[in-house]
Amino acid sequence: MGLFDKNRTDGKTSDGTNNERKGIIDRIKYDGDPNELVWKFPYDNLSIGAQLIVNESQEAIFYKGGQALDTFGPGTHTLSASNIPLLQKLVNLPFGGNTPFTAEVWYVNKTVKRDLKWGTKDPIRIQDPNYKIIIPVRAYGEVGIRISDARNFMTQIVGTMHTADISTISKNFSSLIVTKTKDTIAAFIVKKKTSVLEIPAMIDELSELCKERFISEFEKYGLQITNFYIESINYPDDDTSVLQLQGALAKKAQMDIIGYNYQQERTFDTLETAAGNEGNSGNMMGAGMGLGMGLGVGGAFGNAMSNMGNQINPQSQVVKCPACGAMIQANLKFCSDCGFKLVQNKVKCYKCNTENLEDARFCSNCGTNLKEIKCPKCGKEYNQPIKFCNECGEKI
């Protein structure tokens, strides 16, 4: 950094003052760490005519008495009374000559910073909307920011500090990020009615939602969100509630594949237990009546179960389930072991007239697609050629 007044052998400057007492800075240049967001020029004894060098993606702000005044963008600027009007007005600099004045110069780096990490220190306890089980969830990720309004950022964040780096941003915004992320994840689960265990597959959508919520919050401080990533949403696999929910999901998947629900499963269990009590038709009758009441079908179902119990002879009316091979009562509609539908209606193939089960998609004899005829309007499927849809009347 040069001095306007070169040192003389007598230690005096050209105006007779002691140069050791105060040097006049004629070149202002950034000399801070590249990772710093703001950097204060270490001297404040400047002069009109000094060269101000501002690098790309930087902004220089002059301060006087704690007030932000003139701002300069990238380039080399020669300070004059005309290009620092606010400072000129405040200190009333005379025109002409290398007039000395005091002011602080702050450099603000406006490059994108992508290494701001965040994470939940404590798990987010979220109730699964489908199974009402509370699951502890953790999340972590990364956010990228850049300073969009240098003056606002200096006023709101830096204040009286002499520097600020990415750790300063992390310290000031980590709590905000974690809180907003927790709220967003919880609201997303409730709105979508999605199981907590399925959330990790929706990270991209959640990241965008969180970013949208953060934009206005960061703009208050002169910051712009360039990217927001949730890198992981996880939960402890050995947690009791997680194991309970995983078991419930596995059971639901099994029921969906086989084609029955929980009430039907309980019916199967009751009938199987009653069938195991050989010769005790009274127990079977009681079970049937209780089951009928539990399912809300009233006394009619209970009487039906009672009659069936009186007629059952476990030693003579037992058949083998074609799906799982279990030995079951002959007059059941569903297998009490696997839930397979034992009684199915038959439909004929419209090409070869072979009878097939009503749920069959292809003919077991000729391979014809039995569900290939579909109404273009309402989507109803038919297993034989028709001219008009029975549901909406559309011409097929």
Number of domains: 4
Q: Structural class of the helices, strands and pairings?
A: alpha+beta
* Helical fraction: 25-40%
Write the H/E string, N to C: EEEEEEEHEEEEEHEHHEHHHHEEEEEE
Tell me the name of the CATH homologous superfamily of the largest domain. Answer: Band 7 domain
Kindly report the CATH topology of the largest domain. Answer: Tetrahydropterin Synthase, Chain A
Helix run count: 8
The proportion of residues in beta strands is 15-25%
Major β-sheet annotation: 5 strands, antiparallel
Strand order, main sheet: write it out.
6-5-9-2-13
Provide mean pLDDT, rounded: 75
- Tell me what the CATH architecture of the largest domain is: 2-Layer Sandwich
Shape: elongated
> N- to C-terminal separation?
88 Å
Per DSSP E runs of 2 or more residues, the count of β-strands stands at 20
- Name of the level-1 CATH class of the largest domain: Alpha Beta
